[in-house]
């Protein structure tokens, strides 16, 4: 894998609910401006900074603009104190996405989401099917599985250890407790137990790449199988040997290369 990196700029995007923080990695190759950008959607405890070196490597590998942003309440975006609605995953397609699209001035796009961001990416691809060139999900949940809930309960216990919350504060500051509470209470809520992507997946018509770690602690292989099977467009499914819940960190070069090959042949 090349060590080349792409120029990065920081952005603040005003929405009715508050300001979003985003970073934009420009493709070094001029031809990259002719390709649709890749929008990255982070996981339940994530933010732009936690993508680490992945966006820059992805921009260099694909020759595309890569955009990552912090949802409201996360990272450097404005804080929020409300409770997440049970439809918060679907809302990303009609809330933050149009603001990002308007700010960066793109029409066609590729969307990639990690974990809950993968579910959000599915909704974005479905809602904007006419302009979405490709969907990539990584470790995405397609429904609420006992394994998912068990993994969250275990993480909840770990975060009760002294100093454990400090890891989140490094990335979310004073918002860390809200971030953790939003994740745990939403996914363990009885009201959320019947959530799934089953109804929205058939509305995805673009090519899809579905990635999932062999040893993902938050979901079995039933999740990627359902996503790949129920989308209406052509889908490719990879169970990544040896990987857990964060393949783009655990096997970064492999994921960057795989995404690059997929986009070269599908968009």
Q: How would you describe this protein?
A:
- There is one protein chain.
- This protein is an alpha/beta fold.
- It has helices at 54-62, 88-91, 96-104, 116-127, 146-158, 165-172, 176-188, 222-230, 247-250, 252-266; strands spanning 8-15, 18-25, 38-41, 66-70, 109-114, 132-138, 208-213, 235-240.
- The two termini are 22 Å apart.
- The model has no long low-confidence stretch (mean pLDDT 95).
Question: How would you summarize what this structure contains?
Answer:
The protein has 267 residues and is an alpha/beta fold.
List keywords for this structure.
eight-stranded mixed beta sheet; alpha/beta; 267 residues; 10 helices; 36% helix
Helix content: 25-40%
Strand content: 15-25%
State mean pLDDT (0 to 100 scale): 95
Which structural category fits the helices and strands? alpha/beta
Identify the quaternary structure here.
single chain
Report the biggest beta sheet as strand number plus sense, adding barrel if it closes.
8 strands, mixed
- Please report the number of helical segments: 10
Strand order of the largest sheet: 1-2-4-3-5-6-7-8
Distance between the termini: 22 Å
Number of strands: 8
Unreliable segments of 5+ consecutive residues: none
Shape estimate: globular
Radius of gyration, CA atoms, in whole angstroms:
17 Å
